[in-house]
Amino acid sequence: MRTPRADAARNRDQLLAVATRVFASADTEPSMRAIAREAGVGIATLYRHFPTRESLVDAVYRDQVVRLTTGAHELLGEMPPAAAMRRWMDLFGDWIATKYGMLDTLLVMIESGEIAHAQTRTELLTAITMILDAGRAADDLRTDITAEDIAASLIGIFTVAPRPEHEVKASRLLNLLMDGLRPAARPT
Description:
This protein has nine helices and no strands. The chain has helices at 6-25, 32-39, 43-49, 53-78, 81-100, 103-112, 117-137, 147-160, 167-181. 26% of the residues are buried.
């Protein structure tokens, strides 16, 4: 397979970033033309990179999952585990918000098997577990919490306080969740 030209790779990256932003801020699925216009490219350029809406949704979805999984590694390299967990929760909220503007297409793709929802779940649980394990080793996070507990809590939080319109409420709920993830203070 041939490596794309630098300008073609930039166009693809720009389209992916713009589509992510447009999907996150949309109440309904935006048109492909609206995404191309927002990216400052012609519709033909968009279709050259993403021949169908499904191919664009798939690329955005996969890019966001990669950002979450690699984000866990990067955050742990930059900050203590509890702080990394809290920041990762924000990344998770961004991922959930991105899905709003592509939800109909995404659900059809999951139903048809084009997107392996179980694989995504496994990847996300692995990222959470990595942060939890580091937090346990540093006595920064409780030892009795599972990745599934955190994932379920995050889904609940972003269901009742979807972002971006409920940013303040979501942040407060995430902070409450983090308070519950910290080990109890030991008596002195």
